[in-house]
């Protein structure tokens, strides 16, 4: 094999084109070089440079003001009041504050790079050598050069305003975490306990099941086979938004479905909690609390659109796919003397996500 390779290499080295045979030799690509450098107005006029510097740190301080306003809006328009106008103003003004904070930082950084930082082109040769002392020293020198060219170390007004704007820009997001769970108080001692909050809803013995959002009670005879109805407690309509309508509805929402009675095996279902094939399950996904609202009547599967958890209604809403950790809580139901569907009791376990520490 070695002799064959040597012979092939010798043949290639000794080959010459035959007389009259044209051989195309490509011309090397011409390097056009860099275009002529044009000085910026800030490079030629010191007054223009000062104006650019003032513009940049003004934008950074404007970003700082936007962050402060977002925090102030969170306090001025508390969503805990339950009033629609406060919720709208909360979303609007916090969004405007955060948007202004981020936009001003972005515009200021771009203007800084275009008008103030060094505008000279240079070529950076690259090679495969890495990790030597000379390489590390060169890297340190690059940072020194970048600091010198950008003026970050010299221009204290820009540096200080940028640091303040960046620090302040994260404060609105941190402030918003406060609204994830209400704080307990003497008037509402369980407000800070998610387990207690999710363990009880407006459902109680004799509470009629009603259409969402009309509040019209539901007769068992009106439900067709394969139907899925969004349900709320009938008494929910008596609450106003100020009295916690949205909070109570978020916990008590239910999906009502009708199957053939024989499609509910007795060994996998609590038949005493259903009525003639009609079952009711919490709409709050046991993964992170998204609304489970997609029902496939042929397979009797419920789908959560957020993270694709699937529950089998014919088997006590058992989890058959996805990240949900437990079945959907079932609402025990029956009918009253007038044929309306009513609850036998509240849910017997907490509704909602499973990551809370449940008793």
From TrEMBL:
Segments for region (Disordered): 1-21
A single GO cellular-component term on record: plasma membrane
Predominant subcellular localization, coarse grouping: membrane
Required co-factors: [2Fe-2S] cluster
Domain Rieske: 251-342
Membrane spanning stretches: 59-77, 92-112
CDD domains listed in its UniProt record: Rieske (cd03467)
Family, as annotated: Belongs to the Rieske iron-sulfur protein family.
Protein's job: Iron-sulfur subunit of the cytochrome bc1 complex, an essential component of the respiratory electron transport chain required for ATP synthesis. The bc1 complex catalyzes the oxidation of menaquinol and the reduction of cytochrome c in the respiratory chain. The bc1 complex operates through a Q-cycle mechanism that couples electron transfer to generation of the proton gradient that drives ATP synthesis.
Protein name: Cytochrome bc1 complex Rieske iron-sulfur subunit
Lineage: Bacteria, Bacillati, Actinomycetota, Actinomycetes, Micrococcales
